[in-house]
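Run log, item B.
One chain of 401 residues. Sequence copied directly from the ordering sheet:
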Amino acid sequence: MKKQILIVGAGFGGMWSALSAARLLDMHDRTDVEITVLAPAAVLGVRPRFYEQEVHQMQSPLGPLFDAVGVNFIRGVADSIDVAGKKVGYSDANGVKTSLNYDKLVLATGSRVVRPTSVPGVEHAFDVDLIDEATRLEHHIKALAKQPESAARNTVVVAGGGFTGIETATEMPARLRAALGADAEVNVIIVDRGAKIGAALGENISPSIVDACEALGVQWKTNAAVSAVDADGVTLADGQRIDAKTVVWTVGVRASSLTEQIPAQRDAYGRLHVDRNLKVIGQDDIFATGDTAYAATDDEGNFALMTCQHAIALGRSAGNNVAADLLGEAPIPYSQVKYVTCLDLGAWGAVYTEGWDRQVKLIKEEAKQLKQQINSVWIYPPVAEREAALAAADPLIPVVA
């Protein structure tokens, strides 16, 4: 009977894990091991682009790619992990409960924005976390022109001034004017707990965020938090009211709840502590990758963030090492020493930084061109051709995205 590598999740971490595991099996001419990916759909949602317009196009089919490299795909939603029995329970495409056995497991089920139950009416907010939600926001924006003209109709409140919040907000003036008319007076307001504009991204990058927001007319409410949401706007913690027909929630990301079913240490975001080979500490047969892994990127005390940039490299490493573990081969420890940031700032441009201290290297149009290259080319899956796809999954390839 063939050994089974089961990868749960088909995001960046899961997809690259499958390709990298297939690469190592191919290198050793092993046909006695099967790789299976379990996910709701054989589609990669290009999540870093969900703040953009035409979001329904921001996905890439994975079926032909998995076929090309010999990876099995099963459509289903995982809901349980039996660590002792080495099986994963899931609901199939018809809603029928069943399970899959594994010899080695890679958990790549990502993360979600968590809407706090302590905020009344938070269900009225949109988000750009999953493609369905981002598409719902897009339809809403396009339909605003059918509503009676008002300041609230022309106002968007973005809860959270982190990376996603800033990219969403700075893109929003153009999106609103595309829907309401080029001369429409629009209001975009970021509500953030930080004391300064762009505080979450550090001192070096903050001046570019300030310049971009001033140029675009994006306002900030700092030292502030949304305490309640309704269909007509938000109430802040200090009692201030902002009337807005559109509220976008971008704070409170947490790793997949499936991490809680694995007996192991987790960080504050629910990510599983892993060793340098991405094996869950205390578990012989389970690896974690992408947003489910709390993984050291280097020997300097830095840890992977919940970003596409880190998920790609984490996936390549996890796939290689889970296969190596099964084959008795030497693993390649995960290492991602270089860290960069390329923050989209709407029509103003973008800002590109290098290093964990975010040293600014490019701004405005130069950075925007790089951001467009990253978003439209670099983060997409490889072509569905066996040799090229396997070569692209080498865990030693540096990732800059």
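Observations after the first pass:
- The chain has a mean pLDDT of 96.
- Residues 97 and 175 are 42 Å apart (CA to CA).
Flagged for discussion on Thursday.
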